[in-house]
Amino acid sequence: MSDTYSVREAVAEGDREACFAVRREVFVEEQGVPQELEYDPYDATAVHVLAVRADGEPLGTGRLLHGADALGRTGGDASVGSLGRLAVAKAARGLGIGAALVRGIEGAARERGLSAVDLHAQTHALGFYERLGYVAYGPEFPDAGMPHRAMRRTL
Exposed, middle or buried, 132 (CB in 10 Å: 0-12/13-18/19+)? Predict the structure, then answer.
């Protein structure tokens, strides 16, 4: 936790809407991802993590898929979770919020007994995830029209 923001699982009333608002700002409006691709049925069962400023303003979000929902993204390994939809509002970048969200998602994965976390990183963000201990594997692939690489970190 920081003096200016905190990271928590999105369980309070309104938290999920705050997560979706940040995702809309970053992915739909800023990056041009079609809204129908951004929101999916996994949102209903995912663990959502939210970064909020002390005054309640949402600053960032991410989600963890686990169990059957994650199998298609983790090579069928039920002990691995899938981190995704990591987004930090433009005005809040450079404050360490992205790293705090990743650590929050990893904590949620540990609480659920997972041994590792996979993610599909936009290639421009590989260095960010590498600094957090993730290792890229496999070839580059397109997702929502942008190049990505799979990455994993053992917990």
Answer: middle
Type of residue found at 45: T
Query: Can you give the pLDDT of all 155 residues of the chain as single tens digits?
Result: 456 899 999 998 899 999 999 999 999 999 999 999 899 999 999 999 999 999 999 999 999 999 999 999 998 999 999 999 999 999 999 999 999 999 999 999 999 999 999 999 999 999 999 999 999 999 999 988 889 999 999 99
Q: Are 109 and 80 spatial neighbours (Cβ–Cβ below 8 Å)?
A: no
Secondary structure class of 22 (helix, strand, coil)? helix
Which pTM does this prediction carry? 0.93
Quick check: 35 and 28 in contact, CB under 8 A?
Answer: yes
